[in-house]
Amino acid sequence: MQNDYDVLINGAGMVGGTIACILAASGMRVVVLDREAPSVQVADSYDGRASAIALGSQRVLDGAGLWEFLHEVASPILDIRVSDQQSPLSLHYDHRDFAVTPNNDGDGSGNPLGFMVENRHFRVALARAIEKLKNLTVLAPGQVVAIERDSHKVSATLDSGRVITADLVVGSDGRGSIIRRLAGIALTRHDYGQSGIVCTVDHEHPHQQVAYERFLATGPFAILPLLGNRSSIVWAEKTDLADHIMSLSDREFQEELARRFGSFLGTVTPTGPRWCYPLSLQYTGYSIDNRLVLAGDACHGMHPLAGQGLNMGLRDAAALGEVLIDAHRLGLDVGRHSVLDRYQRWRRFDNGLMMGATHMINAVFSNSIEPLRLARVLGLAVVDVIPPLKKQFMLQAMGLSGDLPKLMRGQPI
Ligand SMILES: Cc1cc2nc3c(=O)[nH]c(=O)nc-3n(C[C@H](O)[C@H](O)[C@H](O)COP(=O)(O)OP(=O)(O)OC[C@H]3O[C@@H](n4cnc5c(N)ncnc54)[C@H](O)[C@@H]3O)c2cc1C
Question: Which of 78, 272, 351, 397 has an alpha carbon 20 to 30 Å from 187's alpha carbon atom?
Fold first, then answer.
């Protein structure tokens, strides 16, 4: 007997929602659950973060049918400047050195390095794309409370008491994944003792589409270009200091922020609420189990200093989408081990590499021991003057190197 759905996806966030769009567009029968209802209205209270979307990830979103709802709210990143505390030496990435496709402006200056998209806009784009897909069922608010798996199916009991069956369950339900916990998949976790303060600021002068990453002694401070004279701030501090900063009055907060931001963009004014996210590294040893697969933060959560967590999740989405669609077209059971193992092997190295890199960068940069400070300042300067090294770093961050899924190469599955 046929199961109710080919794939059940628990968690319709940026990763799960993208997977749902990719699979449903191919004709697979997909049901997606989220504890929060989708919304086509932009809600300021939803999530204060904006995500840096690498060029490879933008291609995934395009292939998933999401970019048409995002391109007008996406702010291009043309240059990236990385510096260490007050050092004059820095690393500069210029988009003209990474032209992989002609840009649409016709000025021959090449594509951006990536885009900034506010998460609240991403949520709306997902809701609008999902509305258009006929064979995608959305059960939200709703969540899985129990799963049983045998050799033929997954039976999931929802909080409503309803039971649905599918060939495969995907856990894309974030860092606290219930699917991971129900499957008993162990998690390794390292608390950074840091929190990420996030807010949006208005500034007097235009940012010229430049993203700044400054490594301060207590943690990285990023200034990321949004549309207009606005930037998103991701400001990592030791947790007790972050708690204190969160409790400051608006005026005191603005002063603290200005001290780190500097005056190069004129007067800087925080707008809207401040947000605070505890920062940790967490990962699972494996991302598949019997008729079950994990994607995104459910199996790898990393430090946001390089803006790569979501990008890794979107690469998972592209690889998982390709593996499942290939199997489905061949008439294979999408829940079989060999299909899932192809996904796990494909993604393991890339995710491990990025988690290791962000962990190491944070360890080396978030302290002021003099020899380390000198080494990292010189390190930035050395990378800046060795073009092949510099290029390799950026191509990796842009999601344009390695064994790329078709969507990341701009090809349909
Ligand atoms: C301060 C900060 C800044 C960041 N900036 C960037 C950046 O610039 N670029 C980048 O690539 N990454 C960035 N990241 C990382 C990025 O936010 C995450 O990697 C990304 O959100 C992971 O997406 P996800 O869909 O896997 O999980 P989530 O975004 O956590 O989504 C999980 C979804 O599952 C739902 N859910 C949760 N539990 C259940 C349940 N039990 N049942 C049903 N549904 C459930 C939730 O409602 C949500 O919709 C940043 C992170 C932080 C903390």
Answer: 397
